Amino acid sequence: MKQYVVDVFTEEIFSGNPAAVCVMEHWISDSLMMKIALENNFSETAFIVKEGEKYHLRWFTLAGEINLCGHATMASSFVIFNFFEKNNTKIIFSTLSGDLVVRRFKDMFEMEFPSFPLKEIPVSDEMIDAIGAKPKAAYLGEDLLCVFDSEEIVRKADPNMEKVKKLEGLLLHITAEGKTYDCVSRSFAPKCGTAEDPVCGRGHCHIIPYWVTKLSKNNLVAYQASKRGGTLYCRMENGKVILAGKAALFSVGELFVDSGKSDS
Prior knowledge:
This protein folds into 2 domains: 2-113 and 246-254, Diaminopimelate Epimerase, Chain A, domain 1 (Roll); 119-238, Diaminopimelate Epimerase, Chain A, domain 1, CATH 3.10.310.10. The model has no long low-confidence stretch (mean pLDDT 96). The chain is built from 6 helices and 18 strands. It has an 18-stranded mixed β-sheet that branches. By secondary structure, it is α+β, with helices and mostly antiparallel strands. The relative contact order is 0.20. The chain has helices at residues 30-40, 70-84, 125-131, 151-156, 161-164, 201-215, and strands spanning 2-8, 17-24, 45-51, 54-60, 65-66, 90-95, 98-105, 108-114, 119-121, 137-140, 144-147, 172-177, 183-189, 194-197, 219-224, 230-237, 240-245, 247-254.
């Protein structure tokens, strides 16, 4: 089985967010996909099977399957566009979050993602204790979004992962208005087996709706301030979050696994 490793939201390898992508002729068992994800030890491994005109896409973290992953979707589109559909400029992925559309514009990939509704909730002592700093506001969608006054607080934060696990939401995102960029953020996913997600597309489905409203502008350049770092070009369109960025191929390999058809 071929496996591709792609660094996403970056122009060069060793930055952005890495994802493994397995493009298959037929589905393998969920247990084997989970074993492959654990062996890779990336925050996400994507598995793809073409079904009709669409590509069925599934994402596995180190803790199990999830319903949405931005960077692994972009990594998957990079692989399809460059190795399978070289003359195409649009891909539709069928996923647990519905159909996701990705378009290619030269070396830029643009994804159409859902926007998670945000409900403001009180800033709690548990949030302050877990993050190590007091947010000025907190919002809950599928994930928890905490907003700070200072970019420096976001960049220097060192959350306690065991305490983050006890907070509401699947992931924790912290964000502030940027100096060079419109906004900066970091994303933490200990419930998914990953302490910090280097560049989180899913997170920006929470972050961008907030900042589009707060900054009163629709086109934003966002920076994820992890150690690897990554840049996202974002906007809102028809209630959807549009995330765009570049990607770089790190490797193409062969997996020596029993890829017989799943009996599940």
